[in-house]
């Protein structure tokens, strides 16, 4: 069991909250792109409000703890660990409700090299509690626009968690999947689930386009997001995403393990 105090200390020590590796410059660039309605920053959310850059800074200050001063333009960004702890509590509460109800769930990540283990542990726990962990569109091709142009990826599932891999033969020693912000994979997965006539997820759990894309389509979604990803927080503010946990989403995979124990304990899913 991880106490709230121990979790808070770990968040700061591991760089998951407090001063994080994401820079203010990178975050502000994302806010500018979102304000300009650039798909690279929207990642599946179609915002209803105007959401100018100043609006986004104010939102991210409330939700993450970043500086609310538009004149603060450089240095490391900051996440308030108390906001992270509170959001993890809400995240755990929703997981616990899914377990009690036996809801079908869908997991997906655009950060498989960092967050796969976190989501996989939650998927294992929900499966053991009687939830169907869905895996629609296994192996389906998804064309994703990357900085190198349009690239074909394959949708894959590892320990119940969806991710994408570049099409072609696998190479030994490669990462488990590709980093992506695209909402296309979750759209493909949800379309496939609907076409198959099987169960649809009552909860989507993940990050990036998985959360935003699912929420935009009307599926309940919860997940994690960094200071340079305003889209999930806008989705939460507009009621299309249920819970967003602010934290650095690119630290060492092992640093998320105490979060697994904390969430599973709070959700009454500890094994």
Annotate the secondary structure layout.
Blueprint: H1 4-13, E1 18-23, H2 24-35, H3 39-42, H4 53-63, E2 76-79, H5 81-101, E3 105-108, H6 112-128, E4 141-146, E5 149-158, E6 161-166, H7 184-196, E7 203-207, H8 208-216, E8 221-225, H9 230-237, E9 243-246, H10 257-266
Parallel strand pairs: 3-6, 3-7, 7-8, 8-9
Antiparallel strand pairs: 1-2, 4-5, 5-6
Helix pairs in contact: 1-5, 4-9, 5-10, 6-10, 7-8
* CATH level-3 fold name: Rossmann fold
Shape: globular
Q: Quick one: CATH class?
A: Alpha Beta
Number of domains: 1
Distance between the termini: 11 Å
Give a short account of the largest sheet. 7 strands, mixed
Radius of gyration: 18 Å
Briefly note the structural class of the backbone: alpha/beta
What letter string, H or E per element, gives the SSE order? HEHHHEHEHEEEHEHEHEH
Please indicate the percent range of residues in DSSP E strands (runs of 2 or more). Answer: 15-25%
* Low confidence ranges: none
InterPro entries: Phosphatase_SCO2771 (IPR031423)
Protein name: Phosphatase
3D structure, described in words:
This protein is an alpha/beta fold. It has one domain (4-266): 3-Layer(aba) Sandwich (Rossmann fold), CATH 3.40.50. It contains ten helices and nine strands. The protein starts with a helix and ends in a 5-residue tail after the last helix.
Summarize the structure.
It is built from 10 helices and 9 strands.
What attributes characterize this protein structure?
271 residues; alpha/beta; Rossmann fold; seven-stranded mixed beta sheet; 10 helices; 42% helix; 18% strand; Phosphatase
């Amino acid at each position: 069991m991880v106490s709230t105090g121990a979790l808070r200390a770990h968040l700061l020590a591991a760089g998951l909250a407090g001063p994080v590796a994401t820079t203010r410059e990178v975050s502000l660039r994302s806010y500018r792109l979102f304000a300009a309605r650039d798909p690279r920053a929207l990642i599946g959310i179609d915002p209803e409000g105007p959401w100018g850059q100043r609006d986004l800074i104010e939102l991210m200050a409330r939700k993450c703890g970043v500086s609310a001063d538009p004149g603060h333009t450089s240095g490391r960004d900051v996440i308030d660990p108390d906001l992270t702890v509170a959001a993890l509590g809400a995240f755990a509460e929703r997981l616990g409700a899914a377990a009690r109800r036996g809801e079908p769930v869908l997991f997906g990540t655009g950060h498989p090299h960092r967050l796969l283990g976190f989501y996989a542990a939650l998927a294992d726990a929900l499966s053991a509690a009687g939830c169907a962990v869905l895996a629609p569109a296994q192996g389906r091709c998804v064309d994703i626009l990357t900085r190198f142009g349009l690239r074909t990826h394959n949708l894959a599932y590892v320990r119940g968690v969806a991710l994408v891999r570049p099409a072609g033969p696998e190479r030994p020693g490669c990462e488990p999947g590709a980093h992506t912000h695209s909402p296309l994979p979750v759209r493909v997965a949800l379309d496939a689930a609907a076409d198959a006539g099987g169960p649809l997820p009552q909860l989507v759990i993940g990050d990036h386009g998985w959360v935003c894309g699912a929420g935009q389509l009307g599926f309940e979604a919860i997940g994690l997001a960094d200071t340079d990803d305003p889209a999930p927080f806008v989705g939460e503010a507009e009621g299309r995403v249920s819970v967003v946990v602010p934290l650095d989403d690119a630290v060492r995979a092992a640093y998320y393990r105490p979060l697994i124990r904390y969430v599973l304990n709070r959700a009454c899913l500890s094994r």
